[in-house]
Amino acid sequence: MELSLGMGRERKKVVVVGGGVAGSLLAKSLQFVADFTLIDEKEYFEIPWTSLRTMVEPTFGERSIINHRDYLTNGQLIASRAINVTDTEVLTAEGRLIPYDYLVIATGHSDRVPKTKTARLNQFQEENQKIRSANSILIVGGGPTGVELAGEIAVDFPDKKVTLVHTGTRLLEFVGPKAADKALKWLKSRKVEVILERSVDLDNISDGCKTYKTSEGETLTADCHFLCTGKRVGSAWLKETVLKNCLDVNGRLIVDANLRVKGRKNTFAVGDITNIAEIKQGYLAQKQALVAAKNIKLLLAGGRESKMEAYEPHAIMAIVTLGRKHGVAQFPITTIGGRIAGLIKSEDLFVGKTRKQLGLEPHILKD
Ligand SMILES: Cc1cc2nc3c(=O)[nH]c(=O)nc-3n(C[C@H](O)[C@H](O)[C@H](O)COP(=O)(O)OP(=O)(O)OC[C@H]3O[C@@H](n4cnc5c(N)ncnc54)[C@H](O)[C@@H]3O)c2cc1C
């Protein structure tokens, strides 16, 4: 069935912009059924939540940073930023115009990271060196990134003084207060100093500076700092395009039940960039990717729009790691902390599972 789609007549052009959690799975799933192109600003897919572990253990990145070419064996790969989209084409920063019949926007978040896997691994070596050579570390931001980084450092480098400053009244505001409380208790038990309801004056800090001012005028000292203040939704590039009226006030693309962008017949959006009313998580971005892939395959095969699958939003479920063995997990009806939550995610961080979903060996086989 899959191989015959689009054969015998000119193959339709399918373009996916964004090779993150959702885009990589879409690419794997659509590469053989159309004239397929993946546009991503990097040559690789990095499993986003593994970066905190890779900072304390750089070799972890060998498995969690995956060259797009490892799973995208059939389509075209364009490693460049998309900067514009028209009704028929995507324009990249390198000046290429990529025509499409069907388009999927999956640019959840954008980050200024190196273009190649080797350069990204080198960057992790540098960050690891920064941690190793510091006695005291300031982490700015108490969302999942700040909390997970504090946990990784506290477990792997228990002698370092870690201070985490967060503007909110509690950590982890994207999940419930019980989960936040469990994370706070765990961090304190590992001697992480958590300062809530303060911000750090970011305008006057730089690498090498060792004193930091808080919003209340206190001075904090640390040998280095990490900013974990969250990434913007990756939709800035759409603001002057034909899709500008499809963005909501938060910069998210408005989609219908079939994951098509508001008012558009041949443009889908999946993952964190959508306005779907549910928690923004990678496992949900993957579920959306599979629904969009199915709908595109149906349309490519000449199927009726009314037969497209609808995406059902899910109840809240999220796991935050606390070092290599512990975590806090919020499920729809309960919240758990400690070893059991850690067993689900904290050791392998779903790397083996994610690699398998892309058709790769969970572990890299050595010759
Ligand atoms: C600390 C932390 C822990 C997390 N833990 C989990 C977890 O345990 N489980 C889970 O399911 N989720 C987790 N998440 C959430 C998860 O990472 C996101 O929900 C997921 O990455 C969203 O996927 P996406 O494909 O929509 O976007 P992303 O994964 O952000 O991918 C977007 C891609 O688009 C590219 N891009 C952006 N703009 C452009 C452009 N203009 N041109 C070309 N390419 C572009 C980016 O480089 C990137 O490759 C965690 C997040 C954080 C921060």
Account of the 3D structure:
The structure is a single chain. With 367 residues, the protein is of the alpha/beta class. The chain has a domain at 13-41 and 80-111 and 231-314: FAD/NAD(P)-binding domain (3-Layer(bba) Sandwich), CATH 3.50.50. It has ten helices and 19 strands. The chain has helices at 21-30, 51-56, 61-64, 68-71, 117-132, 144-156, 177-189, 282-300, 339-345, 351-357; strands at 13-17, 35-40, 44-46, 65-67, 76-79, 82-85, 89-92, 97-99, 102-105, 136-140, 161-166, 193-196, 211-213, 219-221, 224-227, 267-269, 318-322, 326-330, 335-338. The strands form six sheets. Strands 5-2-1-9-16 form a five-stranded parallel sheet, covered by helices on one side. Strand 1 (13-17), helix 1 (21-30) and strand 2 form a beta-alpha-beta unit. The chain starts with 12 loop residues before the first strand and ends in a 10-residue tail after the last helix. The relative contact order is 0.15. The mean pLDDT is 95. Flavin-adenine dinucleotide binds at residues 17-23, 39-42, 48-49, 81-82, 106-110, 144-145, 148, 234, 237, 271-273, 280-283, 285, 319, 345. Putative FAD-dependent oxidoreductase. InterPro entries: FAD/NAD-bd_sf, FAD/NAD-binding_dom. One of its GO terms (molecular function) is flavin adenine dinucleotide binding.
